[in-house]
Amino acid sequence: MKTHQLPPDDKTRCGWCLVDPIYIDYHDLEWGTPVHDDRKWFEMLTLESAQAGLSWLTILKRREAYRRAYADWNVKKVAAFDEKDIERLLGDDSGIIRNRRKIAASICNAGRFIEVQKEIGSFDAYMWRFTDGRALYPKKPYRTWKELPTETEESRAMSKDLRGRGFTFVGPTICYAHMQACGLVNDHLKDCFRFKQPD
Known about the structure:
Blueprint: H1 21-29, H2 38-51, H3 56-60, H4 63-69, H5 75-79, H6 83-90, H7 100-120, H8 123-128, H9 153-164, H10 172-181
Helix pairs in contact: 2-7, 2-10, 9-10
């Protein structure tokens, strides 16, 4: 695996992040950190859905473009996007993935996101129901990246429920990546400086 210039420290990190400085920052500051803000949940759900079939690094490099295109992650504004907005985003040369199905899905998901907020009080409360309100840790800490699952019982339950509510681009694998990103599970490797045992 090709690695880029590492940070000037002696921290041991999960090997997947060492291929790009953007990945390193994301790993050190965000990945696996519990999320409790609905705006952040909407951002990550939209980005994870956009990633389908692509690398996460591809999406992270376009993150600022997505923030601008998606009204700084204002879910009500995005839910109100119409066909003109879809055409605008398809013609957007600022860096987002110009895929009609994914753009349409993000707008659909914004509407469903608001419905969840109205029903449950917050999307945050809804997400944490899938792990009984706590971050999940592997029974035996992972030592290599290849040991990590791509989906779990919890991500399959999340996918099924989201799909039942009308969300799209939310398969079990996307849902598990979402859980990893937002701290519903802690999948940092045992030797990583961000690994920690459950409280």
